[in-house]
Amino acid sequence: MLTIYHNPACSKSRATLEILRASGVTLRVVEYLRTPPTTAELALIVDRLGIRPADLVRRGETIFRERYAGRELGDVDWLAAMAEHPILIERPIVVSDAGAVIGRPPENVRRLLPAPGG
Known about the structure:
Elements lengths: L1 E5 L4 H13 L3 E5 L7 H11 L12 H6 L7 H10 L8 E4 L2 E4 L16
Parallel strand pairs: 1-2
Antiparallel strand pairs: 1-3, 3-4
Helix pairs in contact: 2-4
């Protein structure tokens, strides 16, 4: 099963969700602004992505500029910031048992899909 951390207001997120639904995979959709991931879930996501928590932060968001711009935060602090302010989380994120991708561009998600006929 794949999980997409989805923001329906985001065109990239909608396009990624469309690719996933068209593929027919079993899918869990998490609207992460309504149901934010915990710090533990975020830690698992960044581990699966193979990145640092700071790399998952959307730096163009107002809350980032107001509270975090220019600050040196550690991994635990970035995880806590994203859990408290989920708008900071880059989107969409698709997670599977085998790994994870950020759907920018949406076609990135194809890396997690089974091969046709497989």
